[in-house]
Design brief:
This protein is α/β, with parallel strands linked by helices. 39% of the residues lie in helices and 17% in strands. Residues 21-26, 134-140, 317-326 and 545-560 have low confidence and may be disordered.
Amino acid sequence: MTPADLLRGLRASLYVRLSKASDDRNLSKQGMVDDLRALCAARGFTEVALHIDDGKSGAVRDRPEFRAWLADAIEGRADVLVTWHVDRLSREGLNVAAIILDVIEGKDPQTGKKDHHKPVRLIGYDDRLDSGDPERDDEDSGFRMSFVIKAEQARAELNRMKKRSQARVKRMRKEKRSTGGLTPYGYQRAPRGSKELEHDPVSAPILREAVRRVIDGASIASVAKDLNTRGVLSPRDHAAVRDTGEPRKNRETGEALPPQLWTDQTLRRMLTNPVLLGWLTDDRKVVRDNDGKPVLRGEPLISREDWDALQNAITGAKKPKHRTAPEAMLSGGVFCPLCGEVLHFHWAVKTSQEYRYYRCSGRTRKENGCTAGAPRAERLEQLVGEVLLSTVGDLDVLRKVYVPGDDTATDLADVAERMRELREDRQAGLYRGEQGTAEFREMYANLEKRREQLASKPSRPDGWEYVTTGQTYRQLWESSDTAGRRTLLRDSGVRVEAMKAAATVSVGLFDRPDGYVATDVAVRDGVQLGLYLPGDLAARVTGNPVATIAIRQRPLPVAV
C-alpha cells in the first residue's frame, strides 16, 4: 500500500475566510471553496464540514467559524484541516500560529500538554503547506519553520496594508479629496469630469422632496413614515439596486433580504449632512480650502438658501407634540390651568352615545393630585373658536419664513467657521513644530485678510421675516376642517388652558412660556377657558409699537 493510499477516506474539515476587502488577487469565496473541494477529491478525502468566515478580518482571532474549524480536530470529527492559505487563518503571526500548531499536534491550546485528541493534518492549498506529507515523514521536513514564517509574513503584510491605507488617507486629506466610503444618498459616482459625484436621477428628487417638506413644517418622523408607506427604497436598498441591479442579498445564502425601513434617525442624519451642498466632509466636518470656502465633491443637491432654512427648521424651537386625532381640534394644544400638564383627548361610547372629553394628563397618568375636571370636547372647541375670532379674527394670518443673507454674509460666515476650525486644530496639536506653525500662520493670515475684505462690503445677515398669507384668521378658520384649525392654532402659537368649571376662576402658579399674554380667562357654560397669545400676536392686537414685527407683502413659496 502506497502512502497515497493511506490518505483515502480521511475526514476533512474545510475553512475559508474572506476579509472585508478583497486582496490584490481579488479572491472570491466560492472560488476558494471550489479549490479546497478539488484538493479533497484528488486526494480521496471525505468532506465532513465547511466553515466560512465571510467579511471577517484576519486580525481578529475570535471568529466563530475559525473556532468551529479547530474544534472539529479537537473533538475528533476531522482527520485533516484544509485551508486555502495561511493568511486565511490569521494575520497575528506567532500568536495564533502557536495555537494552530498545538491543535494539529494533539495538544491542549490552553496548557500545551498532550490532549486526548489525536494529531491531525494541516494542508494549505495555495501555499502548498502540508504538516503530514507522507513522502517526507521526518522531523526535519521544515513544516513548522515554513508555517511560522508564513504566519509572520501574513502579519507583516497586514501591517503594510494598514500603513498604505493610512498613508493614502493622509495624502487624500492633504490634497483635500474624499477618502472614500459610501456614496451619499442623492448622488452617484461620476464616471468622468472634475467632480467625483453627480446627481442620482432616482434618489435626488426624493431627497429634495424631503427637504422641502421639512422646511414647510413637516416633522422628520412623518416624512420617514410617508416614504415607508409609499415603498420608497431606503438608502442601503437603493444603493444595492443602483450598483448591482438587484436587491440586497444575504452573503451566505444569496437570498434577497427584506427591505430596510426609513427611520427618523436615518433621515435626520441625511438632512443635516453638508454633502447636500456638494461639500466634502471628513468625519462630518466640512473640508475647506485656504480661502475658507468648502471643497466641492459634486454639484449641490439643494441651494444654500434651502440648506439654511432646513437647518433652522430642524434645530429651531420644537413644536408641541400632539397625538394623531383627526376629530380632536385641540390635541397637544390645550393645557391644565391648575398644574400646567397637557390635556389628552378621550372618547367613549356608552349605549350608542359618544362622549368626548379633554382630561388632564397630570391627574390621569402622572397622578400629581391635580383636581381639574375634564371639560366636554364639543363645548370647549366651540368656545375656543369664538374667543379666538373675537380677539384676532380680523387680523391677517402671518407665516414665518427664512430669509437668507446675501453672498457677502455667507462668505463671512464661511471664513469665520474656517478660522474657528483652524484654532481648534492648532489647540489639538495638528500644527506642531516650525513647519506646522508656519503653515498655520500663513493660512490664518490669509483668512484674516479675506475677512477684512468682506467686512468692508455691505452685507445682510440671514434671519426670519413674517409674510402675510392674504387671509384673515376668520376666513382661514371658517374655511378649514378640524385638522386645519388645529394647525392654525399651533402655527400661530396660541396657548389654550381649560378645565371643567369650578365655582370661581382658578389659575395655577406653574411657569408658563415666556412672552405669552393672557387675553381672556373666564368661565363660560361650565368651562373655564384661558386664551394666551404669543408676544408678537398680542402686540398686533394691542397695537403696542414696541412689540410690532416686520411684515412683508409677498407670496409664500409653493411646496414641492
